[in-house]
Fold this sequence. Notes:
Number of strands: 3
Helix content: 40-55%
Strand content: 5-15%
Structural class: mainly alpha
Distance between the termini: 105 Å
Shape: elongated
Largest sheet: 3 strands, antiparallel
Order of helices and strands: HHHHHHHEEEH
Number of helices: 8
Amino acid sequence: MEKTDARTLTQDVQEAQRLQIVRLREAGRSNKETAEIVGTSQTHCSTVWQRYKKQGPESLVKGKRGRRHGEQRDLTPEQEAEIKKLMIDKAPNQLKLSYALWTRDAVKLLILQRFKYEMPIRTVGEYLKRWGFTPQKPAKCAKEQSPPVVARWLLTDYPAIAAKAKQEKAEIHWGDETGLQTGANVEKGYSLKGKTPVIRQTAKRERINMISSITNQGQVRFMFYRDNMNSKRLIEFMR
């Protein structure tokens, strides 16, 4: 019988072939006889039979083809876990890296620093995606802000203020100052290729200052003024 290379067969056919080999060997046939009947090599028959004797019926079932999960990765699971933890717990500058945020270049440098391996930048991006990291615009936070002081104020000072306001039937206003000026908030718009769209606007900009406040219930107060804020103007607004 003509021999067939088992690697060219589908998984279902391979599984059926292995079952047939085992049945023939259990019936007392030799590897040579089995190979002639099945149409494969004696070596393959011997391999299937020996594997069956060691591992049992599970060795005959078709398996998953291709690269196994995590196989041939540049980093071990332990190394991946270490990099992820550092990215979550630390900023780059805390690890003596010249970056403010975690970028692909920063992660590449971190891997080089920790494991002496220079990973291709594209591979770094694939790892970040696999770990669930996405590029995001950072939220701004003042360096002068002290979280412990803010937490203490929220837990101690503010409840006392809220209790006093409730007793006196007063409102608590959260205030801020800002400036306004005329001008278009220019966004992108569609136009014919090669013909740039034009927005007509005044060249002279008008500016004015504003102070405003809002309560927890959404009540808003605001006042416009030309000059700088001073105590007299603040008292006027408060009234």
